[in-house]
Amino acid sequence: MGNRGRSRKGPEHIGTVLDSLFKQKGIEESIRVHRAVLDWDSVVGEAVAKHASAVHIEHGTLIVEVESSVWMHRLQMEESDLRTRINQHYGEDIIRQIRFRLGSPPTPKA
User: How far apart are CA 61 and CA 76, in angstroms?
Assistant: First the structure.
């Protein structure tokens, strides 16, 4: 009985366990890249997040829904800066391009 084959003392942090599991299953890269969708609001700031929402990622292209053509044009002009900010946030080039499309207005976050 006891610690058969167990080299660690005490419980492991759930984040450590999940990171290890994701690496084993080969989905670590996909999860890391898709965090850009979840973190969109905090990375781009409240002013942009009120008018545009990240929807999903396709082969390194972040798809963003924008509430109006005015905001779409503005964000297209800022695409390079937004992409740079996102990639700097993660410390690597996970987003190669941002594509904007008209969509429904972002739902307010509580």
Answer: 14
Write phi, then psi, for 26 (nearest 5 degrees): 75, 25
Q: What is the CATH number of domain 35-102?
A: 3.30.300.180
Q: How far apart are CA 76 and CA 70, in angstroms?
A: 10
- Residue 74 to residue 31: CA distance in whole angstroms: 29
CA end-to-end distance (rounded Å), the chain = 50
Render each residue's pLDDT in the chain as its tens digit; 110 residues. Answer: 555 555 556 777 776 766 676 566 566 556 666 788 889 999 999 999 999 999 999 888 999 999 999 999 999 999 999 999 999 998 889 899 999 999 976 666 55
pTM to 2 decimal places: 0.70
DSSP 8-state code for residue 102:
E
